[in-house]
Write a structure and sequence with these properties.
Number of domains: 2
Structural class: alpha+beta
Number of strands: 8
Low-confidence stretches: 1-25, 251-262
Mean pLDDT: 75
Length: 262
């Protein structure tokens, strides 16, 4: 945790302002703490505005940074509206399973999806997170990770399993918080009454995949917004554990407590 993140956690606006003024990568810091300290977003926004003015930014530079800050605030609102307030939990590695406990993943599911996987639906490649509420944006999310050296490309493995065709695969680059990017393979497979949206990517010798099951009656525009926000929440590797730890510092809401069974 860096100094600005610590000060945000301590909820000290006056001291945080000093930290903001002395931070070189102001916007990057703001975006990094934004996705974790949701309750501080409006305070941060009020702090950043005078901070830019005091830093003597040129008008064009100031407008660009304010636009970026406003976009971050909008993302906050959208995340709170469409995503759960908790990340998914990795289940204990099953006997014979590979990769799940070796590659950490932080991922916030859509509203209505449980934080724990369904052991009756899991297999050695995917962990299934089912809807726990009616009218969820998606009805199911499957998350998987394997070691590429031992099991190859998980995305390509899943294509025939869900009836996908290789020539329908698209390649996209998602912009994440803190200036990070995520290059993904993507395909949409329409089924009987529902669709499967499969995303796959690679990182540090691991192959990751996330499958969203969406009922056909759901609004495509809203569904795309929800899934895009989910993908933007992804953090992989050592940073995932730190993100989860910081996220847990936030006071859990009644929704999160109910979902966790506490």
């Amino acid at each position: 945790m860096n100094s600005l993140q610590f000060l945000a956690r301590e909820r000290s606006p006056g001291v945080l302002l000093v930290a903001v003024l002395s931070t070189r990568n102001l916007l990057g810091e703001f975006l990094m703490i934004a996705s974790t300290y949701r309750s501080q977003v409006f305070s941060l926004s009020l702090i950043i505005l005078p901070a830019f003015l005091m830093m003597g930014c040129g008008l064009a530079d100031y407008e660009a940074k304010m636009a970026a800050a406003q976009a971050a605030v909008k993302q906050f609102d959208d995340e709170n509206k469409y995503l759960e307030e908790y990340p998914i939990e990795w289940p204990p590695d099953k006997e014979g399973g590979k990769g799940a406990r070796e590659a950490d993943l932080f991922f916030r599911p859509p509203k209505g999806i449980g934080r724990r996987s369904d052991p009756t639906a899991d297999d050695n490649h995917l962990y299934t997170y089912s809807a726990i509420k009616e009218n969820s944006f998606v009805s199911q999310v499957d998350v998987g990770v394997v070691q590429e050296k031992e099991e190859g490309d998980l995305f390509q493995y899943l294509l025939p399993r869900f009836g996908g065709e290789p020539d329908k695969v698209r390649h996209e680059e998602k912009k994440l918080a803190g200036g990070r990017t995520l290059k993904v393979d993507y395909v949409k497979i329409n089924g009987n009454g529902s669709s499967f949206l499969i995303y796959g990517w690679h990182r540090d010798g691991f192959s990751f995949a996330i499958v969203f099951k969406v009922e056909s009656k759901k609004n495509d525009t809203t569904t795309n917004t929800v899934i895009d926000l989910c993908l933007k929440s992804i953090v992989v590797g050592k940073e995932a554990a730190e993100k989860r730890r910081m996220f847990s510092k936030s006071k859990p809401t009644k929704t999160a407590q109910a979902a966790s069974g506490s």
